[in-house]
Amino acid sequence: MPDRHPVVAVLGTGTMGFAMAKNIAGAGMKLRAWNRNRDLAAPLADDGAVLCDSPAEACNGADVVLTILANEKVVAAVIDQARDGLGDGAVWLQSCTVSPSGSRRLADKASALDVSFVEAPLLGTKEPAVAGTLTVLAASAQPEARGSVQPVLDAVGSRTVWLDEVGQPSSLKLAYNAWVLTTVEGIAESLTLAKALGVDPALVVDVIHGSALNSTYVQTKGPNMINDDLDSPSFPLAAAAKDAALITDAARSVGLRLGIAEIVRERLELATENGLGSADVAATYRVPRTVAAG
Length: 294
What we know:
Distance between the termini: 69 Å
Largest sheet: 6 strands, parallel
Oligomer: single chain
Number of helices: 12
Strand content: 5-15%
């Protein structure tokens, strides 16, 4: 790639994509943006973005194509729509959380489209996306693609972890998210138990503070649960439920049954059924845990 800022097409400007697009533009790269709901992309015009009416239009002249969409099926459909805009030498930077096998399927699609493919799932939610401090897990079968996407990775994250093979970043992302979702459900259960036993749930958060088990996550999600401040998501519950399904399905595919992850999946699916999908993942706390007396 020439010694210049790459032209970047961002396909998907939801919570994460919008924040990443702003940081890409802020780093001096030319930005082309598409979103199914154009209104969500419109504010990026103030950052110099060219707003496009189709994925193919957005990819026209782009050196790097970033997909940050809902799931593998949507990613595959959108990149098919982008086909006519993908130029010679374009690199597809795929950041949607998918299964390891799903990432390999997308890599095969990239090969069929004759574009380089970089798998790049993200560790972090809305706040680090806005701050440009995401951790990116990355892999590519095309070594030259690393240099092509590095300016983009530097703009959206503070750390990039390169792995050896496509599929490994998604595997690591699912293992990481298994811990995140276990932590959220664990906080919810501890607070629920304390309240049911007649103890102020805030004391749970207080005694964790300063202990070896303390974390910023506990100190953020715990008070949000207690104060019912759960309707402005940093990580939407529906997305968490999707990830929980990916985690348990991936485990089953290699002969594992993860007890905690299976329960967390059930809890998140129940929360989604109760209309909490657009709330923060911590809204699992709202779902009742009472049982009938036996």
